[in-house]
Amino acid sequence: xxxxxxKQVRAVVSRLGEAxxxxxxIVETLTDVPTCAEDYVMDIQGIISDLDELAGxxxxxxxxxxxxFDNLPEGIQDSDRGYDMEDNISELYDRQSEIEDAxxxxxxxxxxxxxxxxxxxxxxxxxxxSTLQEIKDGLLEIILK
Length: 145
What we know:
Blueprint: H1 3-32, H2 41-70, H3 74-77, H4 80-113, H5 122-144
């Protein structure tokens, strides 16, 4: 992975960290005052939108890495460098899928905040925050190779 793509991955990790922090702050507030759940609907919708955008960014990075791999001579593709690139590409697509799943899970949790339930699903929000941490860790592993 070249430095430009590493920089893009770091930016994604940073934005995932911001989303994770926002969710954690919402969880903390809802744990103390569950009746204010509807106040956070717009915030969570914004986080969902950000996650969807980040999934697209990760897909773009993976596509660029795949293009670079495809343009390598066959001898390099069959070397350790080529194998590492293939692993990175696969990992990036896996992280993209995980971000999409986290967005979907957050959307499901949003239903409990928008009045469809008596209690906000704080555990679901905590789970998404935890998942974002795992995704960040996975992305950092890719750029540290």
